[in-house]
Design goal:
This protein is of the alpha/beta class and 481 residues long. It contains 14 helices and 15 strands. The chain folds into 3 domains: 2-144, Rossmann fold; 160-278, Hect, E3 ligase catalytic domain fold, CATH 3.90.1750; 293-479, no CATH class. Helix 7 crosses helix 8 and helix 11 (353-388) packs antiparallel against helix 12. The N and C termini lie far apart (87 Å). The model is unreliable at 12-17 and 238-247 (pLDDT under 50).
Length: 481
């Protein structure tokens, strides 16, 4: 009889394959004792049967069964073959069709051709599944306790290095500087994509030396991590209808025992900024005033484009089907940009009280919003404890939870709005340095962020006369007061 061996181990910490090798030796001995012919060995090392991940060795074994190449399969135990009822049923069907028997070293032979044998296989599969689920629950509970005690699970990663003598985590200066740079640039209004392009152009090494370089999702996940403000984060198990922060951000549950690269306030602001739904719609604008300029007839945003006939840049109200746009207003791009930027820099240098006052209001708004968010999250934790202890009913818990969660969302919206003025903190204090930075250093993203921090919108009225020159009287700047 031609028999194949299947061996698997869920976790091989050192990559030595010793668990798989021991299973194979026991299976080979069983085949030799029965006088069968070894037709092949199929292995999956360091792959769980419970997780649902693809097991290449198991799929090749199933293909061999379906092809009629083997008459028996030998495994160390049934739980090496299956921990999923769905996979088990597929295995039973294949073995029944091709008259293949399953024999194990520890659980004996399973006659899948009989109802009793299939029942035993299903019972063993259910027991293996139950064991896996219990183990997963124990592991998750242990990790949750460690998180709430401020203990880090595994290495801290990018920005940190372990002291070889004391074993304590320390800040790695070069990588930490990149984390701070990314945070500052995001808070100053730059986009994830723009930062990624710049880091790749400068040849800045990525975490784990990723071959694809820096990308927007990687930067978002990196800079929002709670470890950078010295806090341990934890992601609760998903629940039906539950609310989450999204983008893989867990809750900050305990102060850690490692040094912080960012402040807690910076991390909270970054998380609110990065979960703003408006950041993830469409491509980033190419020109400084796209969307900031508004049509004086229909109020629609003017979009920048390159006029191929004139070879110049223009902003135009584009009339499109299904959109309430007049399509009648257009303005020369370079001229309107020069006018708006000149008045903007004058507002930031000659009348500095306006941005300073706005920034002070933004700071006060930020502090109030962050305080309210922290208090409401504490209320949610207390509410969950009350429900677990039976002091409130499920209906009471759901009703109060929704009210508090809505209040948190509203505070986060307020915090996003305060971010407009917050970008001004990163500008040079000297008027000369501000002008130089604007002309030489700042990206389009940064310029747009500064414009939006001080200017609400710029209305471009229709031209009242035909003239080759730009008419500044058409342009009305609405400042943020």
């Amino acid at each position: 009889m031609r028999a194949a061996i299947y061996a698997r181990i869920s976790q091989d910490r050192y990559g030595a394959g010793l668990g798989v090798a021991r299973q194979r030796e026991d299976c080979e001995q069983l085949i030799a004792d029965r006088g069968w012919e070894l037709a092949g060995v199929f292995e999956d090392n360091d792959i769980s049967a419970y997780s649902g991940k693809l097991r290449p060795g198991y799929r090749r074994l199933l293909d061999a069964v379906n092809a009629g190449e083997i008459a028996a399969v030998v495994a160390w135990h049934t739980d090496r073959l299956h921990r999923s009822p769905r996979e088990l049923e597929e295995w039973i069907d294949a073995c029944e069709r091709h008259d293949v028997i399953t024999v194990t070293v520890r659980a004996g032979e399973l006659d899948l051709a009989t109802a009793a044998g299939r029942m035993v296989a299903r019972m063993l599969g259910a027991a293996a599944r139950h064991e896996s689920e219990q183990k997963a629950e124990r592991v998750r509970r242990a990790r949750e306790q460690a998180a709430k005690a401020g203990q880090m699970h595994g290495p801290l990663g990018y920005g940190y290095v372990r002291d070889p003598v004391t074993g304590e985590w320390q800040i790695e200066p070069t990588e930490a500087a990149i984390v701070r740079e990314i945070a500052e640039r995001l808070l100053a209004g730059e986009t994830l994509r723009g930062i990624a392009i710049d880091l790749n152009a400068r040849g800045v090494p990525t975490p784990k030396k990723a071959p694809h370089g820096w990308r927007s999702p990687n930067i978002r996940q990196l800079v929002a991590a709670g470890r950078y403000c010295g806090w341990r984060e934890w992601t609760p198990a998903p629940t039906r209808g539950g609310r989450g922060r999204g983008y893989g951000m867990g809750e900050l549950v305990a102060k850690g025992d490692w040094p912080a690269i960012l402040s807690r306030v910076e991390t909270e602001r970054l998380r609110v900024l990065l979960t703003d739904p408006s950041r993830h719609k469409g491509r980033a604008p190419k020109y400084q005033l796209s969307g900031i300029l508004r049509c004086g007839v229909c109020g629609a945003p003017l979009n920048g484009h390159l006029d191929s006939k004139r070879g110049t840049r223009r902003y135009h109200c584009f009339a499109q089907p299904g959109m309430n746009r007049c399509g009648s207003v257009s303005v020369a791009g370079i001229a309107v940009e020069k006018l708006v930027v000149t008045q903007l820099l004058a507002a930031l240098t000659e009348t500095p009280m306006r941005p300073v006052a706005a920034d002070e209001r933004a700071r006060a708004t930020e502090e109030a919003a962050l305080t309210a968010i922290a208090a409401d999250r504490q209320r949610l934790d207390e509410l969950a404890t009350d429900y677990a202890d039976g002091r409130v009913t499920r209906q009471e818990w759901l009703r109060v939870r929704d009210i508090v969660a809505t209040r948190i969302e509203q505070a986060e919206v307020t915090l996003r709005g305060a971010g407009h003025a917050a970008v001004l903190r990163h500008l040079p204090a000297s008027p000369r340095e501000l002008v130089r930075a604007w002309n030489d250093d700042m990206t389009v993203d940064q310029k747009r962020a500064v414009i939006s921090a001080v200017i609400d919108r710029v209305i471009v009225h229709p031209a009242t006369r035909r003239a080759p020159q730009f008419d500044p009287e058409r342009v009305e700047i609405i400042w943020r007061v």
